[in-house]
Design a protein that fits this description.
Helices cover 40% and strands 11% of the residues. It has 266 residues and is of the alpha/beta class. Bound molecules: uracil.
Length: 266
């Protein structure tokens, strides 16, 4: 009951303060009532920026290690064995992922914080609690159909922004992670994730709410940048923007028939 109340609170704070029907509709089941997606046409495909003038050994090592993995489990093992990112020396745990990849929805955040470093899973602190409420509002749940990771797999000391070198050493793992998880929809959480996955110079306030595409082989995966839950904790008035982005994600999921039947815990 407490979970239901806190989800309702999140919805009200996010601006969803009016009921549109007498009884709730599970839009992920009622596929017959799919609404058209009111998102702008995709712009140029999102591409991970090519890191230049960085530590070629670390990047090459990361590419080689990530490239040999043929399953998510193998990728986790390869990441845990990788020593090319300086952040690993100060971190307690490698933070790989949490959730169910076969649900088709992959979320990418920034980097582990103190709680995530301690537990070894992404988004388990206050921002993670808000993220869980946001996901619940569109019938997503890391126990059944949402898959969560970060651009950076080790906690930056004092939660500072990761340096370009640190990000460059992690990005080959993220790219392989996306290939192996085979998401049908990607949600990018916040400015740092957008900077490293989308590239370019546009800030998150400009990028958010617009569908982009991420290329995986010959497949284009729809990608929605939105605001980071930690930012929303500091700026609750902007929850309504994140709510709009999540509604666009829910509509896209309906259109794609997600979550896929038979999604299972990893
Ligand atoms: N913020 C992030 O971006 N990722 C986490 O895992 C936790 C907080």
């Amino acid at each position: 009951m407490n979970d239901t109340l806190s989800t309702l609170n999140w919805l009200v704070e996010a601006g969803a303060d009016e009921a549109v029907a007498d009884s709730p509709v599970n839009r992920l089941v009622a596929k017959a009532s799919v609404a058209p997606i009111a998102a702008p046409a995709p712009r140029s495909p999102a591409r991970a920026p090519t890191p230049l003038a960085l530590d070629d050994d670390a990047i090459g090592g990361a590419q080689a290690a990530a490239g040999t993995a043929t399953t998510l489990e193998e990728l986790k093992v390869a990441l845990e064995a990788f020593d090319g990112c300086a952040l690993k020396r100060t971190a307690t745990n490698t933070v790989f992922a949490d959730g169910v990849a076969s649900g088709g929805v992959m979320l990418i955040g920034e980097a582990p914080g103190r709680d995530e470093d301690r537990v070894g899973k992404p988004f388990v602190g206050r921002a993670g609690q808000l993220l869980d409420k946001m996901l619940a509002a569109i019938a997503l749940d890391r126990k059944t159909n949402a898959y969560i990771t970060n651009v950076i797999n080790w906690r930056p000391p004092d939660n500072r922004d990761p340096t370009p070198e640190e990000a460059a050493a992690c990005l080959p793992f993220l790219r392989r992670h996306i290939e192996l998880a085979e998401p049908k929809v990607i949600i990018l959480l916040g400015a740092v994730a957008a900077r490293h996955v989308v590239g370019g110079t546009e800030g998150i306030m400009k990028l958010r709410g617009r569908w982009l595409e991420y290329r995986v082989g010959d497949r284009m995966v729809p990608l929605m940048p939105t605001l980071h839950p930690a930012y929303l904790l500091r700026q609750p008035a902007h929850k309504k923007l994140a709510w709009r982005d999540l509604q666009a994600v829910a509509a896209k999921m309906e259109a794609l028939g997600l979550p896929e039947p038979g999604s299972r815990a990893n």
